[in-house]
Amino acid sequence: MTVIAATAIAVSVFVSFQVASELMDRKLRATAADQLYADSRVLAANAERAGLAQVPLPPYPGSGRLVRVILPDGSTRTPVGQPALPPVSEDARRVAQGAATDLLESTDWNDGYRVYTLRSGDGAVQVADLADDSPINEFGFGMLLIGLFCVAGGALVGRAVARTGLAPIDRLTAAAVHVAQTRDLDADIPDEGGGEIRRLTQSINNMLTALRDSRQAQRLLAEDAAHELKTPLTSLRLNVELLIRLDRRGTLDSALPAESRTRLLHDLGAQLAELSTLAAELTEVARGDVSDESTELIDLADVVVAAATRARSRMPDIEVTLDVSSVWVSGRPAALQRAVLNLIDNAGKWSPADQPVQVRLFAEGAWAVLEVDDGGPGIDAADVPRVFDRFYRADSARALPGSGLGLSIVQRVVDAHGGRAGAARSARGGALLQVGLPAASPPTASEWLTAGEDTAVR
C-alpha cells in the first residue's frame, strides 16, 4: 500500500511537472517574441528616419537585448562591445532584400539566441536576446523538491492509512492462526471494522460456528453410537463366550439341549442383524447430506409402492395396505424410498399381527402428504416432540429391536427436500406419522418422451 501510494503520487507529480513546464515554456516564448517584436519596431522606426547606415547604435551595456542592422549590400552594423551574433541566415537576407514578407521571425537555438528580423528601408534590423532557460530550470528544480516532499509525505500518510485500515486484517489473521494452532473453535473473532472487513469477519465467525456445531454433532454421534453398540455387542459376546466355553469342556450337547441351542443361535442371528442395521444407519447418519444422487422429477406414488414392497419382504407377518394417489415431487428417489421404508418399518414394530399398517399418499394444496398409520399403542404426549430425534427411544420401545436412528434419517431426508414431518395419534389409537413435501407440476408430454429416451439409453 505504501509503495502504491508513493508511486501514484510520483506519477501525478511527474505528469503535472511536464504539463506545467510545457505551458510555462510556451508562455515565456510568447512573451519574449512580443518583446522582440516591440523592440524591433522601435529600431526600425529610428532607421527609417536616420537611415540604416547612420542610425545610432549605443554601446552594448553588458547585458540585455542585442541589435544588428543589415545594410543593402549585405554587411552588418552592431553596437560597440556587443557579443557576436550568429551569422545572418538566408531567411534574414531575403527579408533585407525585400524578397520575403516584411516580417520574419527567425529563432536560432544553436547559439542560444532568439532573433527577430524586420524589414526597414533598403535593409533590415534585427533584435535578439539570449535564450535563457533558467526560469524553466528553476521551476523544474522547485517542482522536483515539491515532488520529493509529496512522495515522501504520501508514502508516510499511505503507510499510516494502510496500517490503520489493515489493522483489523492483522488481528483477524492472528485470530485465525490461533484457531488453527489451538483447534479452539469456541473463540469468536472480534467483530470490528466496516464494509468488506466486517463482512469477512462475520463470515469467518459463521464458519467457526458451523465447524463448532459439526464437531459437537460428531462428538454426540460417537458417544450415542458407542452407547447403542454396547448392549448388542455385550449380549453377542456373552452368548459366543458361552458357546466357546461349553465346547472346550465338551459339554455343549449335554449343557444345551437342542431347543436351547436353537434359541441361542436365533438370538445370535437377531443380534447380528441388529448390529448390521445399526451400522448401516450409523453410516447413513454420518454421511449427513452428502449424496451423489441427483434431484429429479418423480411420482412419489412409485417411491411409496417400491418402499412398501421392500417392507413386506422384511416383515412378512405384518400386512401393509396402500391408498396412494399420483403426486409429483422434485427429489432424490433413493433417499425418499429409504425414508418411506423407515416409516413403514417403525410402524411394523408396533402394529399387532391383526392390525395392518396403513400407508396413504394424497395431495393437499401445494403439498404431497404421506401418512403411515399403525395399530399399536400410540405415542405418549411427552414423546411426540422427540420422536424424530437421533437415538431417541421411548421407554416403551426399549425392549424392541432398533437403534433410534430410523426416524431421525426420515427427518433429515425431509429437511433436505424442504418438507416437514410430524407425529400424532391415529383414529385407531396408534401412531400416525406424517410427512409433507412440496408438490411439483407433472411433466409435459415432451418431458415424458425425453425421460423415456434417457432411460432407453441407460
Mean pLDDT: 77
The largest sheet, given as strand count, sense and whether it forms a barrel, is: 5 strands, antiparallel
Total of helices: 10
Adjacency order of strands in the biggest sheet: 2-1-5-4-3
What is the helical fraction, as a range of percent? 40-55%
CATH superfamily of the largest domain: Histidine kinase-like ATPase, C-terminal domain
Q: What share of the residues does DSSP label as strand, in percent?
A: 15-25%
Terminal Cα span? 58 Å
Order of helix and strand elements from N to C terminus: HEEHEEEHHHHEHEEHEEHEEH
CATH C-level of the largest domain: Alpha Beta
Low-confidence stretches: 395-403, 453-458
How many β-strands, per DSSP? 12
Output the structural class. alpha+beta
Second rung of CATH, namely the architecture of the largest domain: 2-Layer Sandwich
CATH topology tier name of the largest domain: Heat Shock Protein 90
Outline the structure in words:
The chain is of the alpha+beta class. It folds into three domains: 2-135; 209-285, Orthogonal Bundle (Helix Hairpins), CATH 1.10.287; 293-457, 2-Layer Sandwich (Heat Shock Protein 90). The chain contains ten helices and twelve strands. It has helices at residues 2-50, 90-97, 134-182, 196-249, 252-255, 258-287, 300-314, 333-350, 406-416, 445-457; strands at 66-70, 76-77, 103-108, 113-120, 123-130, 296-299, 320-324, 328-331, 357-364, 367-373, 420-425, 431-438. Strand 4 and strand 5 form a beta hairpin. Helix 1 (2-50) packs antiparallel against helix 3 (134-182) and helix 8 (333-350) packs antiparallel against helix 9. The chain is rod-shaped and about 160 Å long. It starts with a helix and ends with a helix. Mean pLDDT is 77; it is low at 395-403 and 453-458.
